[in-house]
């Protein structure tokens, strides 16, 4: 399964239904983030388990165990790390794997942590090897060896660290080396959200943004949000604009549908790129199998864009399958685009022949 890859291609693709945060998201998300576990919607198991871990640590007066959160972008990993800090009444420092290219970068961060501080390390699987190795010791013994000098004269100076809680986030837990994974006391996998949970997210955000929305409007946006709260919040903002300009501000099913039609996000959350890939597969190649390169040329996109940006969601939705012989459309894909698969046409024709009609 690779629906939860975050790739550079995906991060680079600015799309309304992209799960990676864009500039506008970053500016407004702070206001929409749930502040404690009660406010955090869905992910019942993760919430229940995390609640126990944090309560136990608080009761012992200890720093919480290191936590690993895995799951697709936009599902609430950063939010949960902030909640962990808030529940532990601890400060939080936020950084990411790609920002730590040298062990020295990590040493600088670790040595400046306060006792009990939460260190949120996003995209932890993208940290450099030497930094990763330094992290092993820091997590286990709250100690790092800082190497000073080069070559035969180099010396390692041990540095004691205050106890801290590392919250690591990754889109792909399977990519983490086992020694790193094993050093987390608590590991949680975040699932995509169901429609009713997304509706709650949308109602909550609408309340905070002072937007009027009815239950049908929230359901319509939820259905197009690809299981992802970040996308739900982003679609809500676009629909709000439309409701203000074209109507009286109240978001209903009709308004949400009309607004998202303008942005070419369809009833299942597919955008122009997704639909382009599906349409090419169905109309030009009879539903496949067709090779990735051919499909990419047909839609006028890079191979990587088709493979990393469009396909993961199509596969997750059961609209497209990747087979050794190439890409194949499923019956659900034909139904979604309102087209008839050739086999059904042939079957129909065969029957006509059979019955002489
Ligand atoms: P990630 O770190 O996994 O990419 P974030 O924690 O940044 O995701 O969440 C993205 C946005 O989605 C945040 O603004 C937050 O408001 C919203 N969000 C995520 N999870 C939830 C949730 N369970 N309940 C309410 N809002 C959520």
UniProtKB/TrEMBL annotation:
Region (Small ATPAse domain (RuvB-S)): 194-264
Record field: catalytic activity: ATP + H2O = ADP + phosphate + H(+)
Entry-linked InterPro entries: AAA+_ATPase (IPR003593), AAA_lid_4 (IPR041445), DNA_helicase_Holl-junc_RuvB (IPR004605), P-loop_NTPase (IPR027417), RuvB-like_N (IPR008824), RuvB_wg_C (IPR008823), WH-like_DNA-bd_sf (IPR036388), WH_DNA-bd_sf (IPR036390)
Enzyme class per UniProt: hydrolase
Domain AAA+ ATPase residues, every copy: 63-194
Protein name in UniProt: Holliday junction branch migration complex subunit RuvB
CDD domains (alphabetical): AAA
Protein family according to the UniProt entry: Belongs to the RuvB family.
Keyword annotations from UniProtKB, A to Z: ATP-binding, Cytoplasm, DNA damage, DNA recombination, DNA repair, DNA-binding, Helicase, Hydrolase, Nucleotide-binding
Chain residues that bind Mg(2+): 78
EC number, as in UniProt: 3.6.4.-
Ranges where the record places region Head domain (RuvB-H): 267-357
Residues annotated as binding DNA: 303, 322, 327
Free-text note regarding domains: Has 3 domains, the large (RuvB-L) and small ATPase (RuvB-S) domains and the C-terminal head (RuvB-H) domain. The head domain binds DNA, while the ATPase domains jointly bind ATP, ADP or are empty depending on the state of the subunit in the translocation cycle. During a single DNA translocation step the structure of each domain remains the same, but their relative positions change.
Quaternary state and interactors: Homohexamer. Forms an RuvA(8)-RuvB(12)-Holliday junction (HJ) complex. HJ DNA is sandwiched between 2 RuvA tetramers; dsDNA enters through RuvA and exits via RuvB. An RuvB hexamer assembles on each DNA strand where it exits the tetramer. Each RuvB hexamer is contacted by two RuvA subunits (via domain III) on 2 adjacent RuvB subunits; this complex drives branch migration. In the full resolvosome a probable DNA-RuvA(4)-RuvB(12)-RuvC(2) complex forms which resolves the HJ.
Source organism of this protein record: Streptomyces olivaceus
Function: The RuvA-RuvB-RuvC complex processes Holliday junction (HJ) DNA during genetic recombination and DNA repair, while the RuvA-RuvB complex plays an important role in the rescue of blocked DNA replication forks via replication fork reversal (RFR). RuvA specifically binds to HJ cruciform DNA, conferring on it an open structure. The RuvB hexamer acts as an ATP-dependent pump, pulling dsDNA into and through the RuvAB complex. RuvB forms 2 homohexamers on either side of HJ DNA bound by 1 or 2 RuvA tetramers; 4 subunits per hexamer contact DNA at a time.
Residues holding ATP: 32-33, 74, 77-79, 140-142, 183, 193, 230
NCBIfam families: PRK00080.1 (NF000868), ruvB (TIGR00635)
Gene3D superfamilies linked to this entry: 1.10.8.60, P-loop containing nucleotide triphosphate hydrolases (3.40.50.300), Winged helix-like DNA-binding domain superfamily/Winged helix DNA-binding domain (1.10.10.10)
Gene Ontology terms, MF aspect: DNA helicase activity; hydrolase activity
Intracellular or extracellular location(s): Cytoplasm
Gene name per UniProt: ruvB
């Amino acid at each position: 399964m690779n629906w939860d890859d975050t790739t550079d291609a995906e991060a680079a693709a600015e799309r309304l239904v992209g799960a990676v945060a864009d500039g506008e998201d970053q500016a407004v998300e702070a206001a929409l983030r749930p502040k404690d576990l009660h406010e955090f919607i869905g992910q019942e198991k993760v919430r229940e388990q995390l609640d126990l871990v944090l309560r136990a640590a608080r009761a012992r007066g200890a720093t919480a165990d290191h936590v690993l959160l895995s799951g697709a972008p936009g599902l609430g990993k950063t939010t949960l790390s902030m909640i962990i800090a808030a529940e532990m009444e601890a400060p939080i420092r936020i950084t990411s794997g790609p920002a730590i290219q040298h062990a020295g970068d990590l040493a600088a961060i670790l040595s400046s942590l306060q006792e009990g501080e939460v260190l949120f390390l996003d995209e932890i699987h993208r940290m450099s090897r030497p930094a990763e190795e330094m992290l092993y010791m820091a997590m286990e013994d709250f100690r790092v060896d800082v190497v000073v000098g080069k070559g035969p004269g180099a010396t390692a100076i041990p540095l004691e660290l205050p106890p801290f809680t590392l919250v690591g986030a990754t889109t792909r837990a399977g990519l983490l080396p086992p020694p790193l994974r094993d050093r987390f006391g608590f590991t949680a996998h975040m699932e995509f959200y169901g429609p009713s949970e997304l509706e709650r997210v949308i109602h909550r955000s609408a309340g905070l943004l002072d937007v009027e929305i009815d239950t049908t409007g929230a359901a319509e946006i939820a259905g197009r949000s690809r299981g992802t709260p970040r996308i739900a919040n982003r679609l809500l903002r676009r629909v709000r604009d439309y409701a203000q300009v074209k109507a009286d501000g109240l978001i209903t099913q009709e308004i949400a549908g009309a607004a998202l039609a303008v942005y070419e996000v369809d009833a299942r959350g597919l955008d122009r790129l997704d639909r382009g890939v599906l349409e090419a597969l169905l109309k030009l190649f009879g539903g496949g199998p067709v090779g990735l390169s051919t499909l990419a040329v047909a839609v006028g996109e890079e191979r990587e864009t088709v493979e990393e940006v469009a396909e993961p969601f199509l596969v997750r939705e059961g609209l497209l399958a990747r087979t050794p012989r190439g890409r194949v459309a499923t019956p659900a894909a034909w139904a979604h685009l309102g087209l008839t698969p050739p086999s059904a046409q042939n079957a129909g024709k065969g029957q006509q022949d059979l019955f002489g009609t």
